[in-house]
């Protein structure tokens, strides 16, 4: 008997392929002629061809819904949730043969209408704090998942180089739903009146199908001052403080990168060459250290406030950030100033009512005046000195800590960078390191970037060393992961972590902790917070170079070889084979 087997689990991950493999084996034991269509995220979906569809006598669907249901009109179809197929695949197939019935076109239409999931027009925006990895990987995942579900989808990325593939007004107007998969604040005004669903780039990347399905089911029109409905949107807003912080960090990063590399370039002429006035090293230090680094804290505070209160928050936020910098409160003071300015500006906007004749003065006069006054006075008289003392103590500790404490700190930061591969723990460690650059503490950033390279490089090593344990798509993903790791994009390891988290994440943390510990032990310093191995092209951006590379190699080998040994060597399943 000619049979088509279709599997799909809600996450599109391991269960999809496990069920397909078990059902395929059970069907072949029954001497059925089998074609498998597995709807998962690890490999592109390969739909059955027209000839196979025409010859099929039975269609077995282990999924919550029938993908592209209309194509099976007139065929004997059996559909049940995938969890019913796993315990006893033989019984599941026997039930399918017994209970299958002809699938009528009107049933397909009814299913489409009931699910509300076919033929929708979706527009989406992705944006992560660094604007490098998660932004584009989440966009690709959403686009592929949307197309596989039969939707027309367009995704705009707001990355480090600005908006790409920008959505047009016509596309937004025609959209049935808007997905904002953003970890930082983006302007939602152009989506006014549209059903909108908010989530994180991590969710969109790891669970693109459930994200789209949830958006279609839960998206709501957002009114001014609300976050919209849906559980996912509620959870994002509950993490508002984290989101506002990441928005500030994302705008600060270009200042940190430019300033750090310019300072490193000044060191090419000698570590103290910049002290000679009128020389090129002095000019480079003036641009990088005296200007770019001086702007870091005000920009951080200004855009934290912008994330909270929109444009009215920028001026008081930057003023508070400049005060934090001038009184020695550093990045900690800048963060506090940003939140204080943002919430003060928001309160003034919301609670101070003026006559209509002077309401237009509020954004250009009333809000900047009151918010800047409150923020400035609090920073000077309340927050400034205590925070400055805390930052001075932290800086002194980092500068004077012994090798044992340095190794412990490096171990902790390295493990954090590898725990969730771009998630909240990873970002917390990264933000800590970036903030310390403003205080001229360069060692933690060195440990953080080196450890962050380890998971992706390690997965590339594992897929090469133990190629027989990986499917062809996984080996290709391993090559890409290796290159991404060299660029300090740890998200390259996400496909492997999603499929096998209980092995990938611990072995990555061990390798990252080793790398972080070694970089601190070697006294490595890093002037720029991004760029990966390619920062080595800038003289003195990383010092010392060879021990730093040794730390990365050591951690990557531990992760790669460790996972090569731990990974199960099950034979990869072909997602569209006939037997």
Quick synopsis:
With 579 residues, the protein is α/β, with parallel strands linked by helices. Helices cover 59% and strands 10% of the residues.
Descriptive terms for the model:
single chain, 579 residues, Rossmann fold, 4 domains, six-stranded mixed β-sheet, 21 helices, 13 strands, PTS_IIB_fruc, kinase
Gyration radius, rounded? 27 Å
Major sheet strand order: 8-7-6-9-10-11
**Overall number of domains:** 4
Largest sheet properties: 6 strands, mixed
Termini separation (Å)?
11 Å
* Envelope shape: globular
- Helicity level: 55-70%
Give the beta-strand count.
Answer: 13
Query: Quick check: average pLDDT?
Result: 81
Number of helices: 21
Q: Quaternary status of these chains?
A: single chain
Task: Explain what you see.
The chain is globular, with a radius of gyration of 27 Å. Helix 15 (403-419) runs antiparallel to helix 20. It has four domains: 2-103, 3-Layer(aba) Sandwich (Rossmann fold); 121-222, Response regulator (Rossmann fold), CATH 3.40.50; 239-398, no CATH class; 403-569, no CATH class. The chain starts with a strand and ends in a 13-residue tail after the last helix. The longest helix is centred in the middle third of the chain and has 39 residues, at 362-400. Residues 107-117, 225-239 and 571-579 have low confidence and may be disordered. The strands form three sheets. Strands 8-7-6-9-10-11 form a six-stranded mixed β-sheet. It has a five-stranded mixed β-sheet with strand order 2-1-3-4-5. A two-stranded antiparallel sheet has the order 12-13. It is 59% helix and 10% strand. It has 579 residues and is α/β, with parallel strands linked by helices.
